[in-house]
Every structure is written in structure tokens, then in C-alpha cells.
Design a protein that fits this description.
The complex is a heterodimer of chains A (112) and B (116).
Chain A (H helix, E strand, L loop, with lengths): L3 E4 L2 E4 L5 E7 L5 E7 L5 E9 L2 E4 L6 E3 L9 E3 L8 E8 L7 E2 L3 E5 L1
Parallel strand pairs in A: 2-11
Antiparallel strand pairs in A: 1-3, 3-8, 4-5, 4-9, 5-6, 7-8, 9-10, 9-11
Chain B lengths: L2 E3 L4 E5 L4 E3 L2 E3 L5 E7 L6 E6 L5 E3 L5 E5 L4 E6 L8 E10 L5 E5 L3 E6 L1
Parallel strand pairs in B: 2-12
Antiparallel strand pairs in B: 1-4, 3-9, 5-6, 5-10, 7-8, 8-9, 10-11, 10-12
The chains are: A mainly beta (112), B mainly beta (116).
Chain lengths: 112, 116
């Protein structure tokens, strides 16, 4: 049981490049979400999903796309990376009837 | 809208001393409350959580937290700090958004330094 797995752990991008952060969970959790962590700001919600085929925006969705074609996977896409997207990204998941959210190990992204 | 405030950005304590990290929240209903810890370069580890019932909750690594509804607080405590407790601590409140997705609102974090 691997829990929530994020890849890559570290990535450097050039401004304007695109990339996808992968997130997978093997706990059959219905709810998945992406947060970004910036110094002094805690974690902020980017996008979330309540089940396969359903996604919605969080607090800071601009510049990011998501999709949820399967229960297990919830990739986060940066279409045209900007330096303001330099951050640590955390994927999280939760069982539908539960209240505890489980986090991945984080992905450190630098946009130069 | 819900919010979480951690008023102390940085706290320094000596090893063996007691610790209290403050957390205040603003939320219209009874919240789900969490404390997470993050070591440098690591992910978030859940220390403890409060959903209902006994307002004093015990967590891992000897931590405890007390929910005080009248003060809208959920302070984290440890009677004797170890050097390995040096990390950043995040308080979070869970809420139900549209679609019944329980997401978390985080405080800005408190960095704990432990002196030998």
C-alpha cells in the first residue's frame, strides 16, 4: 500500500514550458486535490475532484488544469509555466466517508 | 469564509522545555481540526486531529491539542521537546465545500527551532 504517490519530486522548468505533475493513490479514495505551498502562506487549494470525471476549482486555479479519468490518478498540468508557479505542490486524497486527508511527499518545482 | 491563524511565525525552545503552538480558526460550524508537521524537504505528516467528543486529543510523538470552542482555538502542546521536533507545524481546519468535498484551509505555519 503506497498511499499517495507524486512524481517528479524535483523539477526545473523554463518560463513558457508545460509539464504535468503526476499523482496516484492506491487507497480507492474518491476525493483528490492539489495544494501549493509558499513561504508564509501555508497550503492553498488549486483544484480538487470528488470522483472520476468530476473536477472543480479551488482557491488558486489560474494557470493549472486537472482531469480525473480514473479514481486512482489526478494529474496537474501547467500549460505555460511562469516564475510565480515556483512552489512546492502537494497532492492529497480522502476516503469519501472520512475526514482525514492524506498527503503525498510533495513536488518541488522551480520555474526560471 | 473560513480562516486559520497561527500567530507565531517562529518559536525557539530549549530541548526538554515545554511547547505550545497557537492556532485560532474562524468557521461558522463545528470544524474538523488538524495539526500537521513538515520536516525540511519532506511532506506533511498528520500529528493529530479533532472531529468531535473529548476536546483534548492525543497524537503521535507525544503531542496533544485541546479544542476550545469559546476561544476558537486548537493549540498544540508537548511537555518536553526533543531535538527531532524541530520542523514546521501547520494547523488546518476542514470544511465542506460545494459537492461535499471536505478540503482543508491551512494556517501559515510555525517554524520550531530546538536549542541543545
Amino acid at each position: 500500500n503506497a498511499g499517495v504517490t507524486q512524481t517528479p519530486k524535483f523539477q526545473v522548468l523554463k518560463t513558457g514550458q508545460s509539464m504535468t505533475l503526476q499523482c496516484a493513490q492506491d487507497m480507492n479514495h474518491e476525493y483528490m486535490s492539489w495544494y501549493r505551498q509558499d513561504p508564509g502562506m501555508g497550503l492553498r487549494l488549486i483544484h480538487y475532484s470528488v470522483g472520476a470525471g468530476i473536477t472543480d476549482q479551488g482557491e488558486v486555479p489560474n494557470g493549472y488544469n486537472v482531469s480525473r479519468s480514473t479514481t486512482e490518478d489526478f494529474p496537474l498540468r501547467l500549460l505555460s509555466a511562469a516564475p510565480s508557479q515556483t512552489s512546492v505542490y502537494f497532492c492529497a486524497s480522502r476516503y469519501g466517508g472520512g475526514n482525514t486527508i492524506y498527503f503525498g511527499e510533495g513536488s518541488w518545482l522551480t520555474v526560471v | 469564509a473560513q480562516s486559520v491563524t497561527q500567530p507565531d511565525i517562529h518559536i525557539t525552545v530549549s530541548e526538554g522545555a515545554s511547547l505550545e503552538l497557537r492556532c485560532n480558526y474562524s468557521y461558522g460550524a463545528t470544524p474538523y481540526l488538524f495539526w500537521y508537521v513538515q520536516s525540511p524537504g519532506q511532506g506533511l505528516q498528520l500529528l493529530l486531529k479533532y472531529f468531535s467528543g473529548d476536546t483534548l486529543v492525543q497524537g503521535i510523538k507525544g503531542f496533544e491539542a485541546e479544542f476550545k470552542r469559546s476561544q476558537s482555538s486548537f493549540n498544540l502542546r508537548k511537555p518536553s521537546v526533543h531535538w527531532s521536533d524541530a520542523a514546521e507545524y501547520f494547523c488546518a481546519v476542514g470544511f465542506i465545500s460545494s459537492g461535499s468535498a471536505r478540503q482543508l484551509t491551512f494556517g501559515s505555519g510555525t517554524q520550531l527551532t530546538v536549542l541543545p
